[in-house]
Design brief:
Layout: H1 3-15, H2 31-35, H3 37-43, H4 46-55, H5 63-87, H6 92-97, H7 99-117, H8 123-142, H9 151-158, H10 160-173, H11 178-201, H12 216-219, H13 227-241, H14 247-257, H15 259-281, H16 286-295
Helix pairs in contact: 1-3, 1-5, 4-5, 4-10, 4-16, 5-7, 8-10, 10-11, 11-15, 13-14
Organism: Paenibacillus wynnii
Keywords: Transferase
GO molecular function: prenyltransferase activity
Length: 301
Amino acid sequence: MNTETIIEEIFTEINERTLFDKYNNGSEAGILQVIDLRHMLKQFSWGLLYLYIYSFRNKPIVKEDITLAANIEMLCLSSKILDDLLDEDKPAIAESIGNNNVIFLFADLLIESLSRLHTHSSNERGYVHLQSAMLGEWMDVNKTVIDGITEQQYLNQILPKTVAILKLVAAFADPEEQVFWEKFLTYAGTAMQLSNDLHAVFNDTKSDLPKLKPTLPLLKMLEISDENTKAEMKMTLVSYAAGGISIAALREAIIASGSLEYCILTRELCKDKCSQMLYERFPENVNLNAGLLMYLGLVTV
């Protein structure tokens, strides 16, 4: 599979959709250029992931598959745009068209993609995953680590913001292997989200620490049997929220708690499980297995 060519085909398919026209405002920098979609697809493409999983069916990729991949990409782009708006991580789009139009763009992408995916046999399963992802996103926006969320609640309610989207893609790509892919992608999504959580601890452009989001590195700080130590950790978080300590001091407390090591170990165990599952289920697809694991960042360190 020539990934560079396929990504360009997905981009071209999306770029030809007329729904973006009203957001260009006659500017030389169209909205897809503001979004930097071509670069975004080269970093990670949900449409390409769809085609990776589809390839396990041993069917050739044709024009209709590229179109469906583009629809998947637009659906996930709508989620990305909403997530960036809520997190205030990437203000370029809002600065270009305003917050109100960002919301309209999110809705346009969502409606356009769902209307095109509606006739697919997996559309009902897709809606279930989409609702699960929305709940995870709601939890991520409305809850903080101070709210007393447990690791199990994180896994069951917040993690689906990533895992459910992966499962949605697989539901369209290979519905006959749905049971396998849902289990595989639970481990894969956990590893991927933990990588994001760990990266956000030391990334000043991310809002996870400033907003005390319920990410696992923060939640594990408070899962301590010693009540005095637990109270101290919670006081550190409360103090940071009130402006009493710096973000550097908070990072030092996170490191000292050992939560990062726990998250790294959990992530690596999930990666190992993914590799084991994939090679056991598809032993003949050595190159495709390796490609998918690499693409999802599941190669163990």
